[in-house]
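Notes to self, Sugar ABC transporter permease:
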Amino acid sequence: MATNPRRMRPFRNLYAKIAALPMILTTLVVFVGGTLWTVTYSFTDSKLLPRTNFVGLDQYERLWSNSLWLTSIQNLMIFGVLSLVLTIGLGFLLAVLMDQKIRYEDTFRTIMLYPFALSFIVTGLVWQWVLNPDLGIQHFVRGLGFTGFEFDPLSNPDTVLYGLLIAGLWQGTGFVMCIMLAGLRGIDEDIWKAARVDGIPRWKTYVFVVIPMMRPVFITVLVIVASGIIKLYDLVVAQTSGGPGTASQVPAMYVYRYMFTAQNLGQGFAASTMMLLSVLIVLIPWAYLEFGGKKHG
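result:
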């Protein structure tokens, strides 16, 4: 008696599906359930403990009228734009240099990728020492005889974000470089040969041929870096704790402050929801380009 293939289809890879059940249940209960719980209670006046006394959009009105939240958004936008442009730009440039089949490539790639293996707390503490005027770069340069040299970005409200940016670039650029390098190695060698035969300069080949072909790689890197920027917290805590004053406050610190220090869960949930919305704004266009665009194509 012949077996109906359609009946057997749900039982294909049965053990793999059973093994994936705990992960699926965890995702549904913890992540999806926690997200819905957070969004729901952001419309309440919860203080120390959650309570179902709904107040509509009051928490969001207070949020967007709070100068600390507005400062956090402004700081994140400045840091985010600079971090996106410089991380992707430097990562691609390093990948291009690494793609020239240099000697000891594996060693250089490992050195560049090593900072990404460190936690942001460790990175923040290391760069706090490096940028400390009494211990780091300023102290070293003055020891060489340049007594008028000043380099103390973390103590100046106008430059503290750039001090954070240095640490962020040091940690993330190597990771971006490796992704870009993988994309460059995926370019067909015949394209390079055709460009050389046609006499096209190498830089034009990169700008007009290679970069458009690497669009999916750039989009993936953009999503990864942007998502990390929105969640920025531990690097700031380790380096500046949000100071001097509020010059390096970021949204994640605002959430922590209101949920655990000010004991205002409703306000913390509202800020968390706005951060979630920011992540969705980044992820939805990426998902559409990666999946929806292919189907329409």
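- Residues 67-98 form the longest helix (32 residues).
- The domain at 62-296 is CATH 1.10.3720.10 (MetI-like fold).
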